[in-house]
Amino acid sequence: MIARVIITPKPVVNDPQGLTVKQGLASLGFREVTDVRVGKYIEVNIEGSSEHEARRRVEEMCRQLLANHVIEDFRFDIEQEHKRR
Amino acid sequence: MRFGVVVFPGTWSDRDCGWVIDQVLGQELTYLWHKDTDLKGCDCVILPGGFAYGDYLRTGAIARFAPIMEQVGDFADRGGLVWGICNGFQVLCEAGLLPGALIRNASLEFRCEWTNLLVERTDLPFTSKCGDREVIRVPIAHGEGSYFADPATLSRLEQRGQVVFRYCDSRGRVVPAANPNGSMHNIAGIVNARGNVLGMMPHPERCSEAELGGTDGLKLFRSAAEGALKVLVS
């Protein structure tokens, strides 16, 4: 199984990277852009457990390490991965 | 009086802190390796600046799992003096020993410059040698030193007087222009409610000898050297 974890700065946290990217997009002519937030993407490979169990474990991983609850929100999907050759 | 300076892989200010303790102050010094599991009888533990474990994931995020950190947390719980400087402050926040977090500077730049700090607490073991509301000159060197806390935490810190250092101008005015990194309320350093765990972004170890352009940092080291002897560790 593979967990695809997305971590974003909380809405109340100032995100200077996002603001800078937004300005960059505007200067390229993408004037429809109203907001940009820059976060992190983490892939976690998991073996064994059921999807339900994996979901519970990944939630714990996010709480304990992958995200800092003071400044970040997290969400994730779990996919059954095709067997690698 | 024995200072312990914690060394993680990627720490870089350990020798600067050690020099001040050993050569300038003439106090006992022990380096504590991140894999150590005891504090070797230290009266004050310093978590110095640098990039512990490469600051992978987030600043201080991995360092907090080092074996030594369990001892540091236990020591703090028992009332021992713990002092986080720059990366050490980030580690203390990640470890939950101090509230809030340090995020990317608002400018997105790594800022390496002198700052003025308004000392708002002089009743602490770390600041007793400072004058009341004294302005001290201490350099910063960081890319992620913008202090953030949610509104409830921030107001609790202010109400309890846990803000120890605030970026100010040379006359002690806390103004936006004196804020080098976008920290909320110009916060440069905070202490826990009990007053024994201090975190600060500026580097007092880099201004403890006249040759380095200033000696205000030495006031904090002198305070800690004296203060640690008065603190009762249970």
Strand content of chain A: 25-35%
Number of helices of chain A: 2
Note the beta-strand portion of chain B: 25-35%
Poorly predicted parts of chain A: none
CATH superfamily of chain A: Phosphoribosylformylglycinamidine synthase subunit PurS
Order of helices and strands of chain B: EHEEHEHEEEEHEEEH
Helix content of chain A: 25-40%
- Which two chains share the most extensive interface? A-B, 12 and 19 residues
Please identify the top-level CATH class of chain B: Alpha Beta
Task: Record the strand order, biggest sheet of chain A.
Answer: 2-1-3
Tell me the overall shape of chain B. globular
Please state the second-level CATH architecture of chain A.
2-Layer Sandwich
Helix content of chain B: 10-25%
**Any idea of the CATH class of chain A?**
Alpha Beta
Report the major sheet of chain A.
3 strands, antiparallel
- Major sheet of chain B: order of its strands? 2-1-3-4-11-10-9-6-7
From the 3D structure, determine the CATH topology of chain A. Answer: Mth169, Chain: A
Mean pLDDT of chain B: 96
- Give the CATH topology of chain B: Rossmann fold
Task: Find the structural class of chain A using helix and strand composition.
Answer: alpha+beta
